[in-house]
Design brief:
It is built from 11 helices and 5 strands; from the N terminus they run H-H-H-H-H-H-H-H-H-E-H-E-E-H-E-E. The longest helix has 86 residues. The two termini are 44 Å apart.
């Protein structure tokens, strides 16, 4: 490649971070989640307390009022508590990795709740004093069963709580309080369960909406950034066209006029005109590069357009594009970065390398994409303080462009041995189909 790489140009409007969505709706995501989590913790604590206090009170009442043998009463209470503790710990471990582990009541397993319910029914046959354990049990059967089977199971538990004193023969009839107590508790549990589930649904809905809003925010910020870049590029192109390009064009015209007026200095004025024309062509190319965005297409098509445009000039070298690996879709910004880099490198080869052949190799890797531009030109010394024309601005700008995109540039060249320029851009891990 020539003593210098052709200059690349990139104008951008950068921001450190996108503005964050704020406001009561967005903040409600954390508030709702915190409310659901706090309510779940409260219900868990109440459930734990109920399954310690109610079996203990039931055992004391069974011993003192119903004359149940202490060993039987205490053993029954301990069995209920043991089943509850074992099942609740297992349920929490099962759901520890799930979102609902923080917001659901206990993630009760159906088998556990069934075993606990059967044990409770058996305990009520020992003494009706254990009937009041039905109140925390109402919540468990609702959370363990579905929308239909949950209320049905609740009705069975409530009915057993009402009829248990008759089944054990402790009473011949039931008072209004003994009937309404379990029934009111069951209805209250049903309403509380429905409200709690509604809160969970609203929390999940808020989370989903906030995720969508944040995705829209990111898209909007990216769109605004691209718009800012495009406007800045357009402004710079217009400034170059109105100042630098027009000035160079004036130099060409004045040189032509001066040459006619001073024939004895024709050769000197021709050199001035040629230099001005060459720089005018550079300025026009810069304006075109600034105003023409990378095509909204695949990277391969963008590179083929670079080669096609270069071949239209009808000058060496012969250009070839090779593809290694399986192509995949890239974001427009990455396509433009590699497209502009390829434009710069190909133009550099044409203008400075004096090469007969140039091969562009696009390689797809699991986590990156690379582009190697290899020519058989005169080469240069990359370690020299100033590599080529105008202090190596082309290479400096190429490195700057790739650095902003998170990529790398590697140059391998020596005088008389051609040049290889390798650029690499990360794309993230490739998804494995399966």
């Amino acid at each position: 490649m020539a003593r210098a790489a052709c200059s690349t140009y990139s104008v951008g409007v950068e921001t450190d971070r996108a503005p964050e969505l704020t406001g009561p709706f967005v903040d409600s995501d954390g508030d709702a989640a915190g409310t659901a989590t706090a309510l779940a913790a409260t219900l868990r604590g109440a459930m734990h307390l109920a399954f310690v206090v109610l079996p203990s009170v039931g055992a004391l009442r069974a011993i003192s009022v119903d004359a149940v043998p202490p060993a039987m009463a205490v053993g029954t209470a301990v069995l209920i508590v043991a089943i509850y503790v074992a099942g609740s710990r297992s349920a929490l471990r099962r759901g520890a990795a799930d979102r609902s582990a923080e917001t659901d009541l206990l993630l009760p397993g159906r088998g556990w709740v069934l075993a606990l319910t059967v044990t409770w029914m058996a305990a009520t046959l020992v003494s009706a004093a254990f009937v009041w354990i039905a109140f925390p049990l109402f919540f468990l059967v609702l959370f363990a069963r579905g929308r239909v089977t949950g209320p049905l199971s609740l009705a069975v538990v409530a009915s057993w709580a009402v009829l248990a004193p008759l089944l054990v023969g402790e009473q011949q009839s039931l008072g209004i309080g003994e009937i309404l107590g379990p029934l009111v508790g069951a209805v209250f549990s049903l309403i509380a369960h429905a409200v709690y589930r509604r809160l969970l649904l609203e929390t999940d809905r808020n989370r989903q909406l906030v995720r969508q809003l944040r995705a829209a925010q990111t898209g909007l910020a990216d769109s605004e950034r691209r718009k800012g870049i495009a406007e800045e590029r357009q402004r710079l192109a217009q400034d170059i066209h109105d100042t630098l390009a027009q000035g160079l064009n004036s130099i060409v015209l004045m040189g032509r006029t001066a040459r006619a007026a001073h024939p004895e200095a024709t050769e000197e004025f021709l050199r001035i005109e040629d230099t001005a024309r060459a720089n005018l062509a550079d300025a026009r190319r810069l304006v075109r590069d600034l105003t023409d965005r990378a095509p909204q297409t695949t990277l391969e098509q963008a590179l083929r357009s670079v080669i096609s445009r270069a071949q239209q000039l009808g000058t060496p070298p012969d250009l070839e594009l090779r593809i290694d690996g399986t192509p995949r879709e890239l974001d427009p910004q990455s396509v433009e970065t590699l497209h502009r880099a390829a434009q710069s490198l190909v133009a550099n080869v044409q203008r400075h390398a004096e090469a007969q052949r140039c091969v562009l190799t696009l390689a797809w890797w699991p986590d990156r994409v690379s582009l190697d531009v290899v020519d058989d030109g005169r080469g240069f010394d990359p370690s020299a303080p100033t590599s080529g024309r105008e202090g190596g601005d082309g290479l400096r700008l190429l490195r700057s462009r790739m650095s902003r995109a998170g990529g790398t540039v590697a140059i391998d060249s020596a005088p008389g041995e051609g040049t290889t320029v390798g650029i690499s851009l990360p794309t993230g891990p490739q998804e494995v189909a399966g």
